[in-house]
Amino acid sequence: xxxxxxxxxxxxxxxxxxxxxxxxxxxxxxxxxxxxxxxxxxxxxxxxxxxxxxxxxxxxxxxxxxxxxxxxxxxxxxxxxxxxxxxxxxxxxxxxxxxxxxxxxxxxxxxxxxxxxxxxxxxxxxxxxxxxxxxxxxxxxxxxxxxxxxxxxxxxxxxxxxxxxxxxxxxxxxxxxxxx
Length: 180
Known about the structure:
This protein has 3 helices and 12 strands; from the N terminus they run H-E-E-E-E-E-H-E-H-E-E-E-E-E-E.
């Protein structure tokens, strides 16, 4: 039996970006914070996100034709907290949605995708939402993403990165690996 808390802790060691998913229903914008987001296909361009079935946005998704995924900048942590339902202040942080190809998109984000809803599938206590990407938005520089790791917001080290180490000290014959 897999302990749910241990399972969540292990998954939390996979660093993710943070985004705000938004839909427009009945002249209103409904949005939520998500980090269960990934690319699904390049041809056609598709993405996947996974909202909790009990969440308000998940219950409204059958009515939505399009949605946006706005990837947050490191200075937008307050927006992540707000759209996750954890905001404690009486006034919300400053934000604005703009219309982009028929979906509300969070202005000022790191980057964003606008998608047509392609499919909804059962995924246990979550939905698997597949969207076909119809528009791209690239935010202004600098491009420093808000990251989530081990249950906390993180920021990226500002270097050019590091080279992967050479495996010159490995003396065993490497295993045969098949790539599909």
